[in-house]
Amino acid sequence: MAAGRPSAYTDEIAETICERIASGESVQSITSDEDMPSSAMVYRWLADARYSKFREMYTRARERQADFFADEIITIADTEDNPKKAAVRVQARQWAASKLKPRKYGDRIDVHQQGTVTHTIAPDMIEGLKQIAAKFSQGLLTQDAQEAEIIEIEPDLLAMPDQKSQSGADTGDCDQLETISPEELVNCTVGGESKD
Question: Where is the segment annotated Disordered (predicted)?
Fold first, then answer.
């Protein structure tokens, strides 16, 4: 009875496969030899958690294969007589090396953006920012000042029947709330009761 292809994992077979990969051979080429396992078996070993040492060796072998391909590019360029054939062989090795070791041989994308960003600030905001900056410079505000308590008011709870602001302007109903100044808001009634 013929021995056939090996199917049991051994460290010796794993090391042979990895050495041949590092020397530029493909898994398909290596496993075409009768004394080697099938390519399906090799990929099963790589997927099996029991063979994590083989997976690590394989990964390092593929990185070394990228270096092998990069070295081979120079040899091909220097020795190949047919320029078209040389170009195809070089491009194939460049592509493989860039996929196997992208940090070293991959295309680098350098993104440099230039431009101007313009911020438009409403005039009333500018005045407020100036006041805040003045308070900082006078030491009245610090960066580690505590945040103010946020009070949420639902518009349907505000009732402002015929109220006049301190300036004499009608505060109107809740639909006009965004036009009311903070001073006028103090004079609003909440839920029918005065805040004062």
Answer: 161-182
